């Protein structure tokens, strides 16, 4: 009996129909029996309970600890769909992200779990070390790091919040009743909200609509938020280059270098 079936049967019994739910960890499954549907995951963070209570992820049904110490969580299986790229500009996305960024309960829980704030200086230090380690010497990467260093003193945030840090449209689920959820919180950090906002605006929303989206979120479009957004988007671009370099994804590596070049050109022209 494999490990998956073993812990599944400990929790549910053999009558449940179980199938993998995908994901990077391979620890998530769908289970169905007699009309009941659950999403199961092994060793989810305790953060999940707070996310559920806040209505940010599908409702947590139960949590069980196995004899070996593993913790299994079960959530309602949502019959919904991922947001399409064009739907990321909706007010519902802005409003949910605002709720997340302004939740004291989420912030308190991450602090109790020992999360330390992700600062711009620590991000830049990690990037520089990784670039040196991998021996990347493309001109665009050098220019991007120089820009990040130059702008670092001005990238100040008054209030660090809970950031999802991977707000790809695939992580947003909407139900038939228009209930919106943001899932996959394994990479959550305490950080500048511009990390989430910048990636979302830059990749999904036309710049002419940024002001409207930020208004729905609760911010005014000004030079300060623009600088912070661009800084984090550029940093994320270098991180993506490093990831694809490690995976030997040559075409994606080239694509991201081109993205970095376009961003630098845009910044120099502004």
UniProtKB/TrEMBL annotation:
<dbReference type="InterPro" id="IPR052077">
    <property type="entry name" value="CcrZ_PhaseVar_Mediator"/>
</dbReference>
<protein>
    <submittedName>
        <fullName>Phosphotransferase family protein</fullName>
    </submittedName>
</protein>
<dbReference type="InterPro" id="IPR011009">
    <property type="entry name" value="Kinase-like_dom_sf"/>
</dbReference>
<feature type="domain" description="Aminoglycoside phosphotransferase">
    <location>
        <begin position="21"/>
        <end position="217"/>
    </location>
</feature>
<dbReference type="InterPro" id="IPR002575">
    <property type="entry name" value="Aminoglycoside_PTrfase"/>
</dbReference>
<dbReference type="Pfam" id="PF01636">
    <property type="entry name" value="APH"/>
</dbReference>
